């Protein structure tokens, strides 16, 4: 007999779907089937079942080979490395639960570390813009039930957030949106004709790196001022037409992704998109929302927001929290050689950071906590495999609209494996002893 | 005026935060007392004397104090931050935050400065003989007040984000700038002797931007009004006058809407 577990939360992307169904073996040890998830979400669950999975920490030998060590030895090595560093970077925190993020924050505070999460290479520019000009936002539920116009700007949910459009933004029928996608106008702004653009009623092929100008042009159009004939590769007639449609929507939302957060103008793109949203609220109701990537990157920002006042790039070296992306951001710290050790949990900078940063990681003492073997573990001195959060241990995560959702455990982790939180607690206890606090 | 000379004798392993290198904190102190001032490297607190040899004596007040800083200062941050009077002469390149939040006095840098130079500057004079990094005279993250007063002169080039959220004072750049000049500007004057790339005056409310060279791509919210003759930093020329950003809010004065002014050499 197998067991069916319902209402499972998917710990992969920021859509945080909470309607998955998982079939497990009778003894609850084996995960057999995942239903309702998209392909990437299902893979995350099934990957935990890999037979060749690492189940114990491993330390690198002089000659580059690995030897198995106990979790206690791993915690000792990590605590010593962090406690001895003048400026340790503690990066990642986006594919783990808030409970672990809290323990990690305590460690960082004690060692005077640099806390940064994956927003630094993703929606960090969004967080900067939100701090500069605020943000009129809403929940995904409101969009499902109210939105009759959605704009996807520099994002491609068809591939990056596969169930976003079917669950929330484009297709679902909601309380005031009984016609589903037939009642919604979809606009896609992207230099590339993506699969999301194929679903759009209006597609604006913006010139690469000119989103700031196009967003500015919308604001000019809202105010009925004159525009040049062409802005960012789009004709003024088209811009006036879209501006008019946006003003006449009942409830709209701009979703945006890394096409605008990490192209020319970065935070200014989001800053002005927020001001577009604010302008529209003079006429009707509009919101704006980042398409957050890692399933709990939003949670990392929330936890540090309440602990330190800043959502990423937190510099605790002087005993109080400071924040300045450009200085306290991981890649700047690495490339400028501002740090002397690296601790990674819940992300894979080896795969996401520029090669020049990864080379610096390789040269520094480096601990990576990750269930998988990744490009980051390749440059680590110590690799600590842990239980899969959201699969083998539950915990709190924040969806892209900042709604906290409690995820559940569906199967047991292999015998004797620790969770992120348990390992961090071992490290915290040792750091306290070393620091005498 | 009395002069104190600091010479870097030991490079920090990481970077050093030296916001205490100001006439304000040196004034009235002996060389030993100056050597005992705190500097910071990561989570460690060191003494200024661990890294610099100190000679000479400061004046009794900040106003009477000159500080000369020598050596390779590329790993030194915050020189002259928050100073209110006196003079700091930096003899090499320096790192971030030189003259940040400065209120008065003078800084001369015989080299380049890093990012965030003169962040939130309120008054005084800064002259950088080389080039400056990004966020020159801009606002600190989340602050809506960039440079508010004083004169900031850079002989070379500047990076991106010159004068973001600027509200007063004057920035004069001898060379070129990267993208984003005067974003969210709400007062003050930015002069670019060379070329500016694009995103010039985006979200600008008030103030002036004067470009002697070219702008690759104009913001859509700037409208050409007329051509006028101006004398800028000693040079006379005819400029095309634009007003904007038309997509942004603007205040009214005596019933007239006040726009940001963008001048490009005709
Ligand atoms: S859309 Fe995202 S959260 Fe939903 S099932 Fe796919 S990967 Fe998981």
From TrEMBL, chain A:
<dbReference type="Pfam" id="PF00384">
    <property type="entry name" value="Molybdopterin"/>
</dbReference>
<feature type="domain" description="Molybdopterin oxidoreductase">
    <location>
        <begin position="53"/>
        <end position="414"/>
    </location>
</feature>
<dbReference type="InterPro" id="IPR006656">
    <property type="entry name" value="Mopterin_OxRdtase"/>
</dbReference>
<dbReference type="GO" id="GO:0016020">
    <property type="term" value="C:membrane"/>
</dbReference>
<dbReference type="GO" id="GO:0003954">
    <property type="term" value="F:NADH dehydrogenase activity"/>
</dbReference>
<protein>
    <submittedName>
        <fullName>Formylmethanofuran dehydrogenase subunit B</fullName>
        <ecNumber>1.2.7.12</ecNumber>
    </submittedName>
</protein>
<dbReference type="GO" id="GO:0022904">
    <property type="term" value="P:respiratory electron transport chain"/>
</dbReference>
<dbReference type="InterPro" id="IPR016457">
    <property type="entry name" value="Formylmethanofuran_DH_bsu"/>
</dbReference>
<keyword id="KW-0560">Oxidoreductase</keyword>
<dbReference type="GO" id="GO:0015948">
    <property type="term" value="P:methanogenesis"/>
</dbReference>
<dbReference type="InterPro" id="IPR050123">
    <property type="entry name" value="Prok_molybdopt-oxidoreductase"/>
</dbReference>
<dbReference type="GO" id="GO:0018493">
    <property type="term" value="F:formylmethanofuran dehydrogenase activity"/>
</dbReference>
From TrEMBL, chain B:
<dbReference type="InterPro" id="IPR017550">
    <property type="entry name" value="Formylmethanofuran_DH_suC"/>
</dbReference>
<dbReference type="GO" id="GO:0046914">
    <property type="term" value="F:transition metal ion binding"/>
</dbReference>
<comment type="pathway">
    <text>One-carbon metabolism; methanogenesis from CO(2); 5,10-methenyl-5,6,7,8-tetrahydromethanopterin from CO(2): step 1/3.</text>
</comment>
<dbReference type="GO" id="GO:0015948">
    <property type="term" value="P:methanogenesis"/>
</dbReference>
<dbReference type="InterPro" id="IPR036485">
    <property type="entry name" value="Glu_synth_asu_C_sf"/>
</dbReference>
<protein>
    <recommendedName>
        <fullName>formylmethanofuran dehydrogenase</fullName>
        <ecNumber>1.2.7.12</ecNumber>
    </recommendedName>
</protein>
<dbReference type="GO" id="GO:0018493">
    <property type="term" value="F:formylmethanofuran dehydrogenase activity"/>
</dbReference>
<keyword id="KW-0560">Oxidoreductase</keyword>
